[in-house]
Automatic annotation (TrEMBL):
It comes from Gluconobacter thailandicus. The keyword Transcription does not apply. Keywords: ATP-binding, Nodulation, Nucleotide-binding, Transport. This is ABC transporter ATP-binding protein. Residues 10-235 form the ABC transporter domain. The keyword Cell inner membrane does not apply. One of its GO terms (molecular function) is ATP hydrolysis activity. Belongs to the ABC transporter superfamily.
Length: 287
């Protein structure tokens, strides 16, 4: 692949999307750099699927813009659209095709392609003569992943790609996805509720809450600077260089912690479990 390093694969600017009186996305902005693998995190209803719909050009924003490879996604020319790949939560349609015919049919839209990566083909483990509508949910999802990666896209978007996979297939796919990103230099954005997979795979974390991007942070920085500070009051922490991102009865979850900062006397420090931190950061806040 010929990936230009001076062009951002993704630039989202002030993205707002409404459905009637409901605001699904509220002024979301972020970028994805070449070679980054980014996790999109949020609870159900946080706006993840709406954001992905806007990223892929399926939904038209009410405000703001999405640029892929330097051009607005709504006007993306065919050659740039061919540099993207998308895996939906559930694959639908194409039921009358055989697996092999569908792979050939979708591949024809991309012109001349090299042979399918044998690693992906072995992982998918699909009979090319089998009718798509006869596949199990897990087999359909493996087929959707194979179709999305068949042309080796420069930007790959995955919306809950492993929800219907068994643990063995899920583990192998996450390893395969990491290997693919490293081998090709592709950028990846993935949404999943299996947090351990994302923490291990992704170099950046985007936390959505009620349609707003509340935290955008490299994974390594998140691990190093996110802490529970117990037995401290908001007033005592207000003058310190922390962002309070969660709360429990005994204290606060903060981002920006450093060993160099002198804490109020009596404050105790602990490292949060990633799942606990996710639950706090994405918790619905009272208006």
């Amino acid at each position: 692949m010929n990936i230009r390093k001076d062009v951002l694969p993704v630039q989202v600017t002030d993205l707002t999307k409404r459905f009637g009186s409901f605001t699904a996305l509220d002024g979301v902005s972020f970028t994805v750099k070449p070679g980054e693998t980014v996790a999109l995190l949020g609870r159900n209803g946080a706006g993840k699927s709406t954001l992905i719909g806007c990223l892929m050009g399926f939904l038209v924003p009410d405000q703001g813009s999405v640029d892929l490879f330097g051009q607005n996604v709504l006007d993306l020319p065919r050659d740039l659209r061919a540099r993207t790949g998308f895996v939906p939560q559930t694959m639908t349609g194409f039921g009358a095709f055989t697996v092999g015919k569908l792979i050939d049919y979708i591949g024809a839209f991309y012109g001349t392609l090299p042979p399918i990566d044998p690693t992906i083909l072995r992982w998918a483990d699909l009979d090319p003569k089998k009718i798509v509508k006869s596949l199990s949910g897990g087999q359909r999802q493996r087929l959707a992943i194979l179709l999305a990666m068949r042309h080796e896209p420069d930007f790959l978007v995955l919306d809950e790609p492993v929800a219907s996979l068994d643990p063995h297939a899920r583990r192998d796919f996450m390893n395969l996805l990491g290997d693919y990103a490293r081998r090709t230099g592709a950028s990846v954005l993935i949404s999943s509720h299996i947090l351990s997979d994302l923490e291990r795979l992704c170099s950046r974390l985007l936390f959505l809450r009620q349609g707003q991007l509340v935290l955008d942070v490299p994974t390594a920085v998140f691990r190093a600077t996110t802490r529970w500070l117990d037995h401290a009051t908001p007033h005592a922490l207000s003058d310190l260089p922390f962002q309070i991102i969660g709360q429990r009865e005994t204290g606060f979850l903060v981002h920006g912690w450093s060993e160099d900062v002198i804490l109020p006397e009596g404050t105790t420090i602990s490292v949060p479990d990633f799942e606990d931190a996710f639950l706090e950061i994405t918790a619905t806040r009272a208006a």
